[in-house]
């Protein structure tokens, strides 16, 4: 990967020209770092962007699903980083919208329950977020929803200077047993002390652990080399890597795993790249991804994208995230390759 700013994958981008939701975007006036999206017209503007973006990837946004979410998080949306993520494979029928860099102390899951966005559950997935926030150095969080399907996930981020240890997560009562079952695997590959994001999917009852992206905490190079990629995926019982994935891994810098409460296995292993020029990646693009890049209904000039390839037992699928709104305050979390 060429020398450029890196960041915790879901939260940060290197973008000098954020979109403006606090004023009319036609004024092209940079939005300040404070304020809230309190005016109904601004939520209407965001919903319009969601609808248009969804159409680019052949998804129909549901007003009945999206509007309750916009209203529920109205007081924090204006301060957040907003991105859209499209996928191939089984997730291609929805577009994920994400509000990240929500303030420390905010509980996105409690807000979802309060507004009836997701049913209350006695499953461990419902208590994990509070445990993560109470016992690890979380400094911000986020929420994820499908524009067709509704609320799905929360995200929790430590500071780039103080990442999370897997050994600390294992101690949490609600953590999937799969995390502890794979602790030796994480140690073997030198990533057990660099968890940069914890994701919790309430609809699928899964969780994600992201590794790398912190200050001085880089995933070891061998994880991205062909020998390492083949060894990792083979050890986990995932599909043989394609030549496309092997070329892609040469540019990757963050990895993440997907686990659940029903199996000790790692269900998915994903390699991720951040780049301002995704069309320059050594991969074949889905038509929907090309449209998202070339025809987004918002200014993407100079913006970074996050592209991921996930390996599963049945094969690979691709994901791309495009950023609509960025926040100046995240710059302190960026670090340089140099």
Automatic annotation (TrEMBL):
Positions of transmembrane segments: none
Record keyword Electron transport present: no
A Pfam match: PTase_Orf2
GO terms of molecular function: prenyltransferase activity
Key words of the record: Prenyltransferase, Transferase
Family: Belongs to the aromatic prenyltransferase family.
Protein name: Prenyltransferase
Organism in which the protein naturally occurs: Streptomyces venezuelae
Lineage: Bacteria, Bacillati, Actinomycetota, Actinomycetes, Kitasatosporales
């Amino acid at each position: 990967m060429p020398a450029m700013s890196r960041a915790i994958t879901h939260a940060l981008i290197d973008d000098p020209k954020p979109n403006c939701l606090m004023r009319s975007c036609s004024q092209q006036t940079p939005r300040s770092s404070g304020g809230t999206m309190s005016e109904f017209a601004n939520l209407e503007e965001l919903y319009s962007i969601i609808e248009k973006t969804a159409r680019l990837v052949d998804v129909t946004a549901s007003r009945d699903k999206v509007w309750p979410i916009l209203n529920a998080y109205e007081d924090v949306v204006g301060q957040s980083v907003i991105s859209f993520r499209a996928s191939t494979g089984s997730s291609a029928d929805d577009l994920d919208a994400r509000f990240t860099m929500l303030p420390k102390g905010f509980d996105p899951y409690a807000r979802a329950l309060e507004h009836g966005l997701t049913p209350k559950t006695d499953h461990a997935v419902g208590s994990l977020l509070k445990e993560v926030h109470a016992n690890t150095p979380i400094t911000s969080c986020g929420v994820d929803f499908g524009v067709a399907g509704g609320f799905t996930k929360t995200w929790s981020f430590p500071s780039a200077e103080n990442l999370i240890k897997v050994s600390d997560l294992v101690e949490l009562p609600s953590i999937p047993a799969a995390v502890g079952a794979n602790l030796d695997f994480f140690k073997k590959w030198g990533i057990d002390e660099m968890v940069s994001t914890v994701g919790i999917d309430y609809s699928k009852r899964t969780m994600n652990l992201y590794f790398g992206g912190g200050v001085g905490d880089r995933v070891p190079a061998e994880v991205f080399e062909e020998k390492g990629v083949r060894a990792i995926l083979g050890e986990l019982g995932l599909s043989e890597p394609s030549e496309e994935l092997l070329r892609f891994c040469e540019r990757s810098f963050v990895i993440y795993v997907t686990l659940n409460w029903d199996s000790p296995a790692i269900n998915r292993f994903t390699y991720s790249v951040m780049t301002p020029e995704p069309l320059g990646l050594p991969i074949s693009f889905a038509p929907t991804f090309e449209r998202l890049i070339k025809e987004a209904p918002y200014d993407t000039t100079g913006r970074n994208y996050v592209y991921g390839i996930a390996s599963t037992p049945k094969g690979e699928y691709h994901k791309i995230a495009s950023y609509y709104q960025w926040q100046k305050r995240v710059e302190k979390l960026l670090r340089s390759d140099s």
